[in-house]
Design a protein that fits this description.
This is Biotin--acetyl-CoA-carboxylase ligase. By secondary structure, the protein is α+β, with helices and mostly antiparallel strands. Helix content is 23%, strand content 34%. Helix 2 runs antiparallel to helix 4 and helix 2 packs across helix 5. The radius of gyration is 17 Å and the shape is globular. The structure holds biotin. The site of biotin has 21 residues, from helix 1, strand 3, strand 6 and strand 7.
C-alpha cells in the first residue's frame, strides 16, 4: 500500500516501496484529475524508458514521476523535459557528482575529454491534450542513486559510484524545488540547460524519424531543439536519439 509522507516542496508525495512503473501510476492519477502530485518508489518492477525501452529500477534508486497540468501548448512541452533534466543534474551536482546533460535530457557523467560519458539519470515525459493545450503532463525521472556499479546496465553510473550515497529524501526535495522553479520561469530553462550541456561542441549523430543527422552540435534553440552544423548546412533537430562521436 502507498504510504504518504511530506516533503518541504510544493508537491504532495505518494510513496511506494515497490510499484510497476511510477509513470503508469502517475498517469492514472493524472487521469483522475490530480495535479502537483509526485509518485516516488524505492523499486519499480516494470520501469519504462524512452523509445519503448526497459528501464532497470532496482531498490535504492530515485524513481519519481511528477504530475502537472501546465497552462502551455504542446509545442512548449519539451521545455518541461529540459527543466526536469536541469533539476536532476543540479541535485546530482549538489550531491558531489559531475553531472552534465546530453541532449535532449540524459543526465550523464563525462569520462575523459572526448565527449564520452556514463548515464546517471533519464527522463520520460508523457502527456495528454489537444493541439492547443496540454491537459496533463507526467515527467518521469529515474536516477541511479544508491546503486552498486555492478547492478547497473552497461554504460551507466550511479551517485554511489561517483560520490557515495545520498539522502534520497533530500535529493528528491532539491530536485522538486528546482523543477518547480523552472516550470515557473520557462524562459530560464534553456540558458540553464546550456550551462550544463555536454553535447554542445560535440560531433554528433542524431537518429530521428526523418533520417540521420551528422555534424557538430553548435547550440540549442529557445524551444530546446538541437542545432547541428552538417556538411550541407545547419539542421535543427527537435527530437531524436543523440550519440556523441569521437573527434576525427
Ligand atoms: C530514458 O530512457 O532515459 C528515460 C528513463 C526514465 C525512467 C523513469 S524512472 C521513473 C519513471 N517511471 C518509469 O517507468 N520511467 C521513468
Amino acid at each position: 500500500p502507498a504510504v504518504e509522507f511530506e516533503l518541504e516542496a510544493p508537491f504532495s508525495i505518494e510513496y511506494h516501496d515497490s510499484v510497476g512503473s511510477t509513470n503508469d501510476r502517475a498517469r492514472e492519477l493524472a487521469g483522475e484529475g490530480a495535479t502537483d502530485v509526485v509518485v516516488l518508489a524505492n523499486e519499480q518492477t516494470g520501469g519504462r524508458g524512452r523509445l519503448d525501452r526497459e528501464w532497470a529500477a532496482p531498490a535504492g534508486g530515485v524513481w519519481v514521476s511528477v504530475v502537472t497540468r501546465p497552462a502551455i501548448t504542446p509545442a512548449r512541452a519539451p521545455l518541461y523535459t529540459l527543466a526536469a533534466s536541469v533539476a536532476t543534474a543540479t541535485a546530482a551536482r549538489e550531491a558531489g557528482v559531475d553531472a552534465r546533460i546530453k541532449w535532449p535530457n540524459d543526465v550523464v557523467v563525462p569520462v575523459g575529454d572526448d565527449g564520452d560519458y556514463r548515464k546517471l539519470a533519464g527522463i520520460l515525459t508523457e502527456m495528454e491534450g489537444q493541439t492547443d493545450r496540454v491537459d496533463w503532463l507526467v515527467a518521469g525521472i529515474g536516477v541511479n542513486a544508491n546503486l552498486d556499479a555492478d547492478a547497473l546496465p552497461e554504460g551507466a553510473t550511479s551517485v554511489r559510484a561517483e560520490a557515495g550515497d545520498v539522502d534520497r529524501r533530500r535529493f528528491v526535495q532539491r530536485l522538486l524545488e528546482e523543477f518547480d522553479r523552472y516550470r515557473g520561469d520557462l524562459e530560464a530553462v534553456v540558458p540553464a540547460w546550456r550551462e550544463l550541456a555536454l553535447t554542445i561542441g560535440q560531433h554528433v549523430r542524431v537518429d530521428r524519424p526523418a533520417g540521420e543527422v551528422v555534424g557538430e552540435a553548435i547550440d540549442v534553440t529557445e524551444s530546446g531543439a538541437l542545432v547541428v552544423e552538417t556538411d550541407d548546412g545547419r539542421v535543427t533537430v527537435s527530437a531524436g536519439d543523440c550519440e556523441h562521436l569521437r573527434p576525427v
